[in-house]
Amino acid sequence: MAQVLEMRIGDGTIIDPNAEVSVPYRPGCAPTIIGDDGIVRSFAVIYGDVIIGSHFRCGHHVLIREHTTIGDHVTVGTGTTIDGHVEIGSYVKLESQVYIPTHTSIGNYVFVGPGAVFTNDRYPLRLRHEYEPTGPIIEDSVTIGARAVVLPGVRVGYGSMVAAGAVVTKDVPPWSLVIGVPGRVMPLPERLRHENRARSWLLEG
Predict the structure, then answer these.
(1) Range(s) of the domain holding residue 115
(2) Interval 131-159: pLDDT, tens
């Protein structure tokens, strides 16, 4: 069993057996902080230097690395990896088996479908002298479909939708739809031009 730091857990938050929270990654790192009324399910691993808000929901076998900040009312699905140095807003749903690399920013009211992959290195293991990890920027009320791929440094604008399986290779203007490989960007149909809102968010917010 790895040595763990003293975690700071809010009222009503449940840590299931076999979950590891506040795992140290270096001497002197800060503990994990989780707000009220959360659930961390078994076999999740959360490192130190992670700050999570209230009403957090975490599936099994989730990994959240250091220097990650997560807002309120966030769900992280089973098998999802958040590789650290990541900012996630409030009212966000990351479905199962999503991969979020370092230096990624995700806004509020965002949905990311199962198996979606974000990337932060345009030329993996090439041009190392120029390497600087740059993850995607996902603005508020964006929906990312299942198995979509978002390339490094791409900004997906407010209210946009990325179709399942699409590969996003360039910046996406607000209220756009991205489909296909490589992703073709077009205006979002009028009937889909409204912010993301889950019924549970309306009840909890």
Answers:
(1) 8-204
(2) 888 999 999 999 999 999 999 999 999 99
